[in-house]
Amino acid sequence: MTSNDGRPPRLPREVAGTAIWLASGDNTVRMSGGADFESLADYYRRLGLAEDAWHVGPEHPSLEQLALRILAESDGARILEVGVQSGGFSVPVILEVFRRKGFAYTGIDNLAYTNAVPLRLIEVYLRQSGVAGPLRFLEGDSTSLLRAEGPSSYDFILLDHYKPKYPIDLYVICARELLSERGTIVLHDVLAHAAPQWRICQQICRAFGYVWTIDEDVFQGAAIIRRGGRRRTPAIARSLIGLGVAARWNLHAAIGHARRAAGRALRSIGLRP
Ligand SMILES: C[S@@+](CC[C@H](N)C(=O)[O-])C[C@H]1O[C@@H](n2cnc3c(N)ncnc32)[C@H](O)[C@@H]1O
Question: Is residue 26's pLDDT more than 60?
Answer without folding.
Answer: no
